[in-house]
Amino acid sequence: MRQFILSLLACLCLTAYSQTASQADLLVEEAQKLESKQDYPTAITKLKQADELYVKTGKTQSAERATCLHILGRCYLNLERPEGLTYTQMAADMRKTILGETNIKYISSLNNTGLYYLTVAKDYPKAAEIHGKTWELCSRIQPRPEQAFMFHINLARCYIALGEMDKASAIVEEEIAISKKMYGEKSLSVARQLQQIGSLYYLSGRKDVGVTYYEQAFNIFPDDSKEYEQLLDWISSIYVELNNQPKVLEYMKLVEAHNKKRIGKALRRT
Asked: Which residues of 53-87 are buried (b: 16+ CB within 10 A; e: fewer)?
């Protein structure tokens, strides 16, 4: 009887342990949904609850907890709050130990660590060091992972922040060449990347450089796409800011032609 009772208690404890761990996983899933809706404060609350449960159930050094910490750090990063750096570094250390340094999940956590130094702490030399390591590890992985473009461009962002424009430009041109070879010169994937690079330069204060990439993207997007209209507006506005009169006139004509075409289509539908 005593042995039966002990076995029953052990079974109950194991069931409770499993339920607690499952509850933590569910909290992480809920947090990810909230993160996708940009409800970062609520997501952070749920992720902290999940983290406490992982620790409580002995999953202190686990892939599940590392994922929880990674998302937690990412939510803080989106809010530009420096306390998230601790969680991101914990996730990176844990993933390196569990998965190895050439695992894409570890590299992603390392990338987010670099983004903290780049965008929150504004420690550009440190950011460049971390993103350099991120890219070095990523470049070892074959076939090329889909995150490679983002990781490499983040290194270019560091060089722009440091004023090392030649290094940034070399990375950008290398990535564009790779994308054109992979997807085709006139593919929408290339157009979106060109638009992203244009925004990178524009937001760093190099409007003159950014607008050239916007123009390349503009020449790829179909004229009935929202991206075409958006870029037409952006490019026109930038050339006004740059006081480039020939370009202002060129894009005024394009705006006029596009508006006439859009009005014509609307009339035909009626």
From this structure: bbeebebeebeebbbbbbbbbbbbbeeeeeebbeb
**Can you tell me which residue has the tokens 């550009």?**
124
End-to-end C-alpha distance for the chain, whole angstroms: 85
Is 91 a residue whose pLDDT tops 80?
yes
Separation of alpha carbons 2 and 63, rounded Å = 38
C-alpha to C-alpha distance for 175 and 144, rounded to whole angstroms: 12
Q: Which are the contacts of 254, defined by CB distance < 8 A and separation ≥ 6?
A: 232
Grade residue 6 by pLDDT with cuts at 50, 70 and 90: very low
Residues 57, 24 contacting (CB under 8 angstroms): yes
C-alpha 194, offset from chain centre: 16
Q: How far apart are CA 268 and CA 85, in angstroms?
A: 56
pLDDT in tens, 144-178: 999 999 999 999 999 999 999 999 999 999 999 99
User: CA–CA distance from 179 to each of 31, 63, 175 (Å)?
Assistant: 33, 32, 6
How many whole angstroms separate alpha carbon 239 and alpha carbon 261? Answer: 23
Contacts of 97 (CB under 8 A, 6+ apart): 61
Residue 137 near residue 110, CB atoms below 8 Å: yes
Q: What is the dihedral of CA 49, 50, 55, 59, to 10 degrees?
A: 180
Query: How far is the C-alpha of 203 from the C-alpha of 201, rounded, in Å?
Result: 6
